Amino acid sequence: MRPSWDEYFLEITELIKTRSTCLRRQVGALIVKDKRILATGYNGAPSGCRHCLDIGCIRQELNVPSGQRHELCRGIHAEQNAIVQAAYSGTSVKGGTLYVTNQPCVLCAKMAINAGITKIVYKGDYPDRLAMELLEEAGVEVINIKNF
User: Fold this and answer.
1) Active-site annotation holder among 7, 79, 137, 141
2) Verdict on whether the full-model pTM lies above 0.70
3) Quick one: which of 13, 38, 102, 117 has the fewest CB in 10 Å?
4) CA dist 123 to 40, 47, 144, 148, Å?
5) CB 92 within 8 A of CB 32
6) What pLDDT digit, counting tens, does each position of 9-47 carry?
7) Which H, E and C letters describe the chain, residue by residue?
8) Is 141 a catalytic residue?
9) Rounded to an integer, what distance in angstroms lies between the CA atom of residue 126 and that of residue 109?
10) Which residues contact 50 (CB under 8 A, 6 or more apart)?
11) Residue 90, Cβ neighbours under 10 Å: how many?
């Protein structure tokens, strides 16, 4: 059976996340507009920096719960990476859809809002109620495909 567009793009995020270098959670994201992929991103250290796979995870060492103390992480989130990669190549994501393997955190939600993302489709949960409140307030359509 042929997948819907949302299912199709979410399946691609599963492949993207395999490039992640995070020891705690692999996340993949892509931004689409008019059924065309504009940018992709996965979570990991910034370009030119050592990966957690190589040197360990400070958040894991400090036993920091998921969804807390983002500033202690060496990595950039998949959604942030996708938005930055689009900007790096001069591609506007205004009016685009963000597909991501997990619900965005508040930092990613704020970036998506200011980048002009109008729809977010995700499947995995993440413990961040403020992110969802901000997305709703900003009028971003959010779809959770749980049984993907």
Assistant:
1) 79
2) yes
3) 38
4) 17, 27, 5, 7
5) no
6) 999 999 999 999 998 889 999 999 999 999 999 999 999
7) CCCCHHHHHHHHHHHHHHHCCCCCCCCEEEEEECCEEEEEEECECCCCCCCHHHHCCHHHHCCCCCCCCHHHCCCECHHHHHHHHHHHCCCCCCCCEEEEEECCCHHHHHHHHHHCCCEEEEEECCCCHHHHHHHHHCCCEEEECCCC
8) no
9) 12
10) 74
11) 6
List, in order, residues 6 or more apart from 6 with CB less than 8 Å away.
99, 121, 143, 145
Q: With the CA atoms of 7, 9, 10 and 15 taken in that order, what torsion angle do they form, in degrees rounded to the nearest 10? A: 130
Here the tokens at position 66 are 């998921």
Please list, residue by residue across 23-50, b when 16 or more beta carbons sit within 10 angstroms of its beta carbon and e when fewer do: eebbbbbbbbbeeeebbbbbbbbeeeee
